[in-house]
# Entry
Amino acid sequence: MTKFESLLFYLSVYILSAFFLSISKKRKDNKKIDLCFIIAILLPVVIAALRDNVGTDFENYSWMYESQRELTFAQLLKYNGKFIDGTPLGIWVASQIAGAFASQEVYFGLLALLVITPIFLFIKNPKTNYCKSRVYS
# Structure
């Protein structure tokens, strides 16, 4: 896939995700499971999880996963909640969960989920400030 085709693909995914998010936001019914909201989040999360060598940050995240999944919690505590290289607790937790599945794809998906969910929750309901919670730092 060329860079332009890749750009069009990712743009299409986010436009489709925004479409489902806008449908979800317009709904007044908050008691049922909001399938449109789930689809809006899952579209970019699944694409992020399945990416392979895409983007300038792919190799950095790949390295973080590989380097963090072998480290123990005791090693984390030794450096006051951050490893020697400054990696936060949440990154280590995501590495441990993905390591249990032996899957870098799970790692990429978890990171995307942690980033996208608070933003989409805020867009859906701006009165609740989900973005103030720093999930993994």
